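Practice record 12: protein with magnesium ion.
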Amino acid sequence: MNAEICELTKNNIDSDAIKRAGEIIKNGGLVVFPTETVYGLGGDGLNPLSSKKIYAAKGRPSDNPLIVHISDIKDIDKIAVDIPKTFYVLAEEFWPGPLTMILKASDNVPRETTGGLDTVAVRFPSHPIAKAFIEAAGSYIAAPSANLSGRPSPTKSSHVIEDLSDRVDMILTCDDIEIGLESTIVDLTAEKPMILRPGFITKEMLEEVLGEVQVDPTLMDANCTARPKAPGMRYRHYAPKGDMILYKGSVQWVKEEIVKATNKAIGEGHKCGIMTAHEDYDYYRDNLPFDEEKLVIVDLGSISNMEAIASNVYKALRYFDTVKADIISSEYFDRHGLGEAVMNRLLKAAGHHIIEEVL
Ligand code: TXA
Ligand code: MG
């Protein structure tokens, strides 16, 4: 299969291309589409064969459920049952947008889509191309992130084309992807709402409208032996091909340690990568060899702009693969607010390998 690739922009949504994409879904095919978080790999969420195809295309274990994307809040009653009041409160505040809610699934949703669970993850994306595409399909779109299983989620068309162009029917591109990290997932089926995956909608934002919100205890603690409630959070994820290490401590200590470790690794013949906040970029540039064959340094953005850092994380991880970096050092960022989502992804990418300052 060689995918038809259509370049769209938010202001120029080619209606013929959207119509063709909708037809492909109706015929049980697969279409990659942009959302405000990351690209999605879409199929008909109500067609069990389409969901099976998604798992096969992505190389994903079939017990890891898919998110069902809708384009109108009224559709919720066709997908979910026993919907709690908290759902409507959150939908009112954050939909359309980067929030996925877990509800009890209705019988309309095939268990192939929910990975065998009797709950379903639902999201109403705000990206206008996603909305037009879902409407054209005349169904609900089951979609995981459009990466091969285990790789960083795609935030640029080149990422999707690299991973999936021979595995899907069509790719709708639009590199205007604002957020760059997957949606926040909140489970509304337990007594208290619980965050299963941190994202752009932070715990603080959810608590402002709901009061206390719990966090799946397995999320940030590498030593926690319980099973994460979102099956997908079990797998090694978001990982670049090289070994990644996070450095945690005072700013000066982190910079000096990364320089020391990088110099040593370069001396041993490794290709190195560094992920840094903008504020520290010049320090690395000034204290390490300027040789792209040996070292690439990625400036993620200013420490005072976590949105920028979040939007650059996956691009950076993919870039390290492109340049074949085999040792990657990254600064550890403050986990407040959106920093929680950023660090969740970086900790997973690094397999929780942290070198910490001893005080
Ligand atoms: O931003 C996003 O959420 C993107 C875009 C395309 O919408 N989608 C995405 O899907 O990140 P995916 O499949 O890569 O991640 C979905 C996560 C997985 O960790 C999965 O285990 C979890 O959601 N999930 C799905 N259904 C669930 C359920 N019923 N209960 C618990 N976790 C669920
Ligand atoms: Mg994913």
